[in-house]
User: Fold this.
Amino acid sequence: MCIDTITKSGIEKYLNNSEKFNITVLKSVDSTNAMLKKMAVVSPEYTVIIADSQSQGRGRFTRKFHSPKNCGIYMSILLKPTLKAESSVLLTAAAAVAVSLVAEKFGGKKTHIKWVNDVLIDNKKICGILTEGSINITNGGFNWAVVGIGINAYEPENGFSRDIAEIAAPVFDTKAPENRNRLIAEVLNSFCDFYKNLKDKTFYNEYKSRMLTIGKPVTVIKNDVEKEAVCLDLDQNCRLLVEYKDGEKEYLSSGEISIKHI
Ligand code: BTN
Assistant:
């Protein structure tokens, strides 16, 4: 028996505007992103699927996202944004800031962000975000986007699995009723505030101030090719400006690019 059970009514209590969302809470699913993507065309914006565990939770680059029961939050939000597909990084960045602010409020520890989609506490990952979408080829915008958010609310009873034990951390140190319902609701509240005014990028300063990368050497991995660079800045579209050893500069959008801190 879990003392902090995720429920739809529990989440709705803490939402600013519960009518807006169409929330389904499941005990288990293969992947909330996979499920919501199948429903995306016929479902309204702000349809949200949340699961207590996932059997095939996915991260970027087809990595697995460990999703054990009773300790995580695995949530996907359906959006129908009026946004150019190349700006999808803004959705990920807005979600990262929403999680950061709420995790700081509840967990009491400062968060950092590893561009583009990881939220960290003490240099360990508390949250990963996977944004996927369907692009409208006639206008280069979105038919729909799914923002998938995976949060390590608690450390699993037997600890994090061996392959992530060194790099994962929880938001909460101890279990308490309603922790996860409140965390989910406040992340949705905060994300929606940012999303409503996405073009104003009200999350930009919060994002940039939490970045660990600026001014540091990084390895840029594109199509499996690694290149050393220095990270110079984050532009207003949340693209990372890097300078390679040969002096060439490039703005990186999230896409297929991965950054390794050196
Ligand atoms: C990453 O760390 O690369 C991103 C992880 C994203 C995990 C979340 S959990 C909810 C949603 N469903 C998935 O299968 N993945 C995302």
Observations:
- The mean pLDDT is 94.
